[in-house]
Amino acid sequence: MRLTAQKSTLRQVKADAVTVFIREDKKLFQQDIAYLRKILGKRIDTIISLENFKGKVAEVLSILTEKKLTAPRLYLAGLGEEKKLSHESYRRASAAVARQAQASRIKHLAFNLPAFGQTETGKISHAIAEGAYLSLYKFDKYQTKKKDEQSRITEITIFDPAESTVKDVKKELNDVRIICEATTLARDLANAPACEIYPETLADTAKKSAEQYGYNITIWDKKKIEREEFGGLLAVNAGSTKPPRFIILEHNSNKKDLDTIVLVGKGVTFDSGGISIKPSSGMAEMKMDMSGAAAVIGTMEAAVRLKLPVHLVGLIPATENLPSGSAMKPGDIIKHYGGKTSEVDNTDAEGRLILADALAYAATYKPKAVIDLATLTGACVVALGMHATGMMGNDEELMAKLKTAGDKTFERVWQLPLFDEYEKQIKSDIADVKNVGGKWAGAITAGFFLKKFIGDYKWVHLDIAGTAMLEEQHPYAPKGGSGVGVRLLVEFLKNWK
After folding, report:
1. pLDDT in tens, 217-248
2. Is residue 145 annotated as a catalytic residue, yes or no?
3. DSSP 281
4. Annotated catalytic residue: which of 352, 401, 412, 487?
């Protein structure tokens, strides 16, 4: 999809449909409609009255322009009350318009950059384009009867009459395209079935990205993983016929003056629960248990294309978790990379076992910060639902930076405590730590387990179980894999000092 900027006016913009944003407040509503009334006449008041359009957030009204504009169709997009106006308001409004426009077989959709937001033209244009682009995503690779490709929007334009503004918008749209393409990659990986994406093919996808965009990749096979004594990854993989992979991605590896940040992504390409098998209902969703890995690959690709000035390392332990005669069993003891041991009390608490190896290995890079992303616990979904990612860590400043990035991108994070009192729940009588902590505070005890394996570095754990695997469509994310984490981490990395 093309993202373009035009120096134009509402009357003259060249597109199949044009969008104008409208605020809900009565006085501002009339103010926003006044200019349209000069073009369309009092007819617009009649249409607004008949359709009961109020300018509420993501409310959309479609109007045929009857040759009063170059574009044959006009969309009014509600932004809600001005006091609640945010970049997210623009994302949701543009998303609602884009979906309706595509249903009407519009191919080229334009958005008028609102005059009342001129102090933040770059950020507003970013939000408009991002919401529209991401809302049109659909994973239809395996549908033999696809909707007519000709009905899809192929170009999104943001226009303004000022040349200087258009120049700024063009720069912003380049970043939007990169970030949205990276998010789409993460969504595609998460939504693909486990017969397509398994450890080897996940590594192949990362390799293709690395070759295309010029960053380093190293892929460990099972023999290398055995030599490095990644006991957690090997134990979880023991029940599968598909061998594990450990994927190492690196951007700016030759620039020693840059800060090193390590991202760790859980790459369980299918999670049956192992011997502690899950119920059959909903198990198909466990193809998305590698959403953390997908986010790391997407973030790495975006960081390289945006030329972000950080030494970025991505670590992905990849495996399936399946039951068989050779599978890991409750009661087993695992020796992880670095020598620490864990007792397996539940084989369905497998993500933390493979992350333990990767987090211990991350210390070899002497990083300024390590962030792991994992669809780790159902308990986090119970606590926060699908609207916020659970966040735990050992550094308040690092978590504050992620919260700021989450608020800007609306991939929000919410801090959960790692009080010392939780540690006793994962105490083992026969190993250094036990992989589950009982009924209570499951998301926190999982985080505490990971804390046992981190090195001497600043660390944050993001539990994306609720935000990565959506049970219903969100304003600009579909049901299924959301690609969460890419926009959050890119924003965080862009502002790294």
Report:
1. 999 999 999 999 999 999 999 999 999 999 99
2. no
3. T
4. 352
